[in-house]
Amino acid sequence: IADVSEEEFCRRDPHSHVCPQKKQCCRANTLECQACIADVSEEEFCRRDPHSHVCPQKPDNKPSHPDNCYSTIWNTEIMHGEMGAKKCCWYGDWKKKSKCEKKTSHPDNCY
User: Fold this and answer.
1) What are the pLDDT digits (tens) for 65-101?
2) Phi, psi of 98 (to 5 degrees)
3) In which region does residue 92 sit, left (phi positive, over 0), alpha (psi from -120 to 50) or beta (all else)?
4) CB count, 10 Å around CB of 89?
5) Which among 73, 49, 72 has a CA at the least distance from the CA of 62?
6) Strands 76-78 and 69-71
7) Strands of 66-106, DSSP E
8) Would you say 80 and 89 are in contact if contact means Cβ atoms under 8 Å apart?
9) For the chain, how big is the Rg over CA atoms in Å?
10) How many CA atoms lie within 13 A of 58 on its CB side?
11) What are phi and psi of 32, to 5 degrees?
12) Maximum Cα–Cα distance across the chain
């Protein structure tokens, strides 16, 4: 065995106490488990993927796209052309509800 490299020894007997052991990670969909699986700290995991649902969301309430809006009532992002709690999100700005109504001015027109 003296003629075998540590790498080869551990390949043959990976559970030996002298061999580095792979970290055992939980499999839950939590920040702790996902960071462990990625082999990075929780901070680094969220720095790399800040919009991951396991990462705490920043309190700046900025939507992921400039055409979207952030609803402080629902604490969530609203897509362009969709209704928030009271108003319509239209190109990143809150507008009257009528902006989101998908009615055309004439039945032959497209929305």
Assistant:
1) 999 999 888 888 999 999 999 999 999 999 999 888 8
2) -60, -25
3) left
4) 24
5) 72
6) antiparallel
7) 69-71, 76-78, 88-90, 93-95
8) yes
9) 26
10) 12
11) -60, -50
12) 88
Q: Are 64 and 35 in contact (CB under 8 A)?
A: no
Task: Mark 26-43 as b/e (b = at least 16 C-beta within 10 Å).
Answer: eeeeebeebbbeeeeebe
Instruction: Give, for 8, the enclosing helix (H) or strand (E).
Output: helix 6-12
**5-26 pLDDT tens trace:** 888 888 888 778 888 777 789 9
Residue with tokens 């928030």: 84
Q: Using the structure block, give the residue that is written with the tokens 């609203």.
A: 78
The DSSP code for 4 is S
What is the token pair recorded at 95?
A: 């507008």
Between 51 and 42, where is the model more confident?
42
